[in-house]
Amino acid sequence: MGITVEHLYKRFGAFTALDDITLEIRQGELLALLGPSGSGKTTLLRVIAGLEHADGGRVLFEGGDATALPVQQRGVGFVFQHYALFKHMRVDQNIAFGLKVRRGKARWPRARIDARVRELLSLVQLEGLEKRYPAQLSGGQRQRVALARALAIEPKLLLLDEPFGALDAQVRRDLRRWLRQVHQATGVTTVFVTHDQEEALELADRVAILNKGRIEQLGTPAQVYDQPASPFVYGFVGQANRLAGTKVGTQLQVHGQWLPLPAGVSLSDGPVELFVRPQDLRLVEADQPGWMATVVDVPRSGPHVRLHAQLADGTPLELELPAATQVPPVGSQVHVQASRFGVFQTG
Ligand code: ATP
């Protein structure tokens, strides 16, 4: 089901948690809401679910206004960070819960419920554990039960709020891969909240980046990483060096170097800030254009060489260089060039 969120506002007293959010969630996509703590991710999810009322704006399900529709009628499945499994129910009973509470014509015959539970146990790879109680499962297994329970009712929309937030790094990585497979198998439109950029970039078809109740950027993982739309996105998704400069006509003056203003960027003349990813900085010969910097530290990290340097005025630079690079010693002078950068107005 495609969902449209139009000009949503949500205030808690004098605090604006959602500030004019407009968003199109496409049928069948896996969309991540990524942002720092307090940016409004959970609030947006709760408004979409119908658990929270907006102060302004609309939520459309398949084009129809769902703003006034109660939670039960939205056909939404949820999974939250802290597993809300029923402790006194076995795994199979937890999964069947949403089907068993149905009444009247909506109620499925027992054999059909049992078949659905078996199908879901297989989907979430928990066959053989159906008679256990939640306390007899690991954290990752409990979250898989929670997902199976959310999927049991065949929701048109699945909402996941930091579903792996409470689990350790390795389990999180495994579950991420697994969630992607489950999504491919079911095709359910899914929105998941995370503050972990790696999780969002690896898992999602598209990522909405939230900051202070607003969407800073909506795009594919590649778009938000390669073409950040704002200084905030540059800093939040991946790392970036920041260099102060001045725009003069079609040129940028940055720490004594002249650089061309990238095509398609429109800025007024005046102070700007350059954002350069560590992997977009490279060492060049002294006769080439570049910044003169002093090497401060060369920590090794995985397959790359990290190099920390600073410009004459103390501005720090971080470079990520191919592993084969001849590492210059600490204290030496290097010449640094940016192969790619973003530039934004300051002041
Ligand atoms: P986190 O990653 O920490 O869960 P989040 O991006 O999901 O953060 P929200 O939970 O949506 O953020 O909260 C957004 C802001 O609204 C926060 O500053 C929070 O304190 C505030 N807020 C949320 N719910 C309420 C409430 N019921 N009453 C008052 N303030 C609230």
UniProtKB/TrEMBL annotation:
GO cellular component: ATP-binding cassette (ABC) transporter complex
Biological process according to GO: quaternary ammonium group transport
Protein name in UniProt: Sulfate ABC transporter ATP-binding protein
CDD domains: ABC_CysA_sulfate_importer
Keyword Translocase assigned: yes
Coiled-coil portions: none
InterPro entries according to UniProt: AAA+_ATPase (IPR003593), ABC_SmlMolc_Importer (IPR050093), ABC_transporter-like_ATP-bd (IPR003439), ABC_transporter-like_CS (IPR017871), Mo/tungstate-bd_C_term_dom (IPR008995), P-loop_NTPase (IPR027417), Sulph_transpt1 (IPR005666), Transp-assoc_OB_typ2 (IPR013611)
Source taxon at top rank: Bacteria
UniProt GO molecular function: ABC-type sulfate transporter activity; ATP binding; ATP hydrolysis activity
Matches recorded under SUPFAM superfamilies: MOP-like, P-loop containing nucleoside triphosphate hydrolases
NCBIfam families: 3a0106s01 (TIGR00968)
Pfam families referenced in this protein's UniProt entry, alphabetically: ABC_tran, TOBE_2
ABC transporter domain span: 3-237
Keyword field: ATP-binding, Nucleotide-binding, Sulfate transport, Translocase, Transport
